[in-house]
Amino acid sequence: MSIIDEHKMDNFRRLEVDEVRRICKDDPVRPYIDAYWRVDNHLKGMIEYKEGDKTAYICYTVCARIPESEMDMYNLSYKDVNHINSEPSFTTAVFYTVWSTDGIGWKLIKLMPEYIKQQHSHVEKFVTLSPLTPMATNFHMRNGAKCLNIGQTCQNFEYKLDA
Q1: Average pLDDT score over residue span 6-13
Q2: What does the pLDDT look like over 95-145, one tens digit per residue?
């Protein structure tokens, strides 16, 4: 049985741009990222995860490789939704913001590799683009991620798909 089966696919909801516009102003990590950019094609998304009255949010994009900065993420993200032949080369899911006021953000980020794999079977790597803060470092290390890179402005952690 998969982890998602235990937590029900119904708990996940991909948000539309109008919802994203309203919700992302509360994003504690990157509130300045445009709502439309977050969801402008099928390889990007903002996901709402609910358990009872608790809610968490995460934003992701699929890139051709691991970005080392926000600008890198913008440049590497999938832009041409009409050029399907290049999609398989986009194998890295990048989680660039996660938050919850109810304390379930940790659960969402641990469930996301399986959720992404179900949506995009070609994705092989699941990483973060995290700020250089002790809070971000502690959050990801506490949740079993491996630190891959510490750059000048961001750091990357990798989450594994649970078998």
Answers
A1: 80
A2: 999 999 899 999 999 999 999 998 888 899 999 999 999 999 999 999 999
Judge contact between 125 and 94, C-beta under 8 A: no
Show Cβ contacts of residue 89 under 8 Å, excluding neighbours closer than 6 positions.
64
pLDDT of residue 4: 58
Please state whether the predicted TM-score (pTM) of the whole model is above 0.85: yes
The residues, ordered by sequence, that sit 6+ positions from 124 with a Cβ below 8 Å of its Cβ are: 91, 92
Beta carbons within 8 Å of 57's beta carbon, 6+ residues apart? 23, 27, 46, 47, 48, 49, 97, 98, 99, 100, 108
Domains in the chain, CATH or no CATH each = 3-159 (3.40.630.150)
Q: What are phi and psi of 67, to 5 degrees?
A: -75, 145
Residue 5 to residue 8: CA distance in whole angstroms = 5
Residues 6+ positions from 136 with CB-CB distance below 8 Å: 29, 128, 130, 155
Contacts of 163 (CB under 8 A, 6+ apart): none
Let me know if 71 is exposed, middle or buried by CB neighbors in 10 A (0-12, 13-18, 19+).
Answer: exposed
Structure token digits, residue 71: 């600008």
Which helix (H) or strand (E) element contains residue 129? none
